């Protein structure tokens, strides 16, 4: 499992963040998601064998927000890989 943090611009309230979170949770391979409108980001815990970053970007774009920029990935053991997707 991997943890990915992405920027999500345009979140204006906790309700908009909740909408993104719920949409992400519908994706096969997403185990947990949290969208923070104050930080303008989402943290997604996923199985990278089932999903690609491209799929996450598309999902967030479908919610009406700009395609996010990947800011950080973390492996299940907490290690940050040397190459970001």
TrEMBL record:
<dbReference type="GO" id="GO:0046872">
    <property type="term" value="F:metal ion binding"/>
</dbReference>
<protein>
    <submittedName>
        <fullName>Copper-translocating P-type ATPase 1</fullName>
        <ecNumber>3.6.3.4</ecNumber>
    </submittedName>
</protein>
<dbReference type="GO" id="GO:0016787">
    <property type="term" value="F:hydrolase activity"/>
</dbReference>
<keyword id="KW-0378">Hydrolase</keyword>
<dbReference type="InterPro" id="IPR036163">
    <property type="entry name" value="HMA_dom_sf"/>
</dbReference>
<dbReference type="InterPro" id="IPR006121">
    <property type="entry name" value="HMA_dom"/>
</dbReference>
């Amino acid at each position: 499992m991997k943890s990915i943090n992405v920027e999500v611009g345009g979140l204006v309230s906790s309700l908009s963040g909740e909408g993104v979170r719920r949409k992400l949770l519908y994706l096969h391979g997403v185990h947990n998601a949290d969208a923070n409108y104050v930080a303008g980001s989402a943290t997604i815990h996923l199985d990278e064998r089932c999903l690609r970053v491209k799929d996450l970007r598309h999902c967030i774009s479908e919610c009406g927000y700009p395609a996010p920029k990947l800011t950080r990935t973390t492996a299940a053991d907490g290690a940050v890989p040397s190459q970001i997707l």
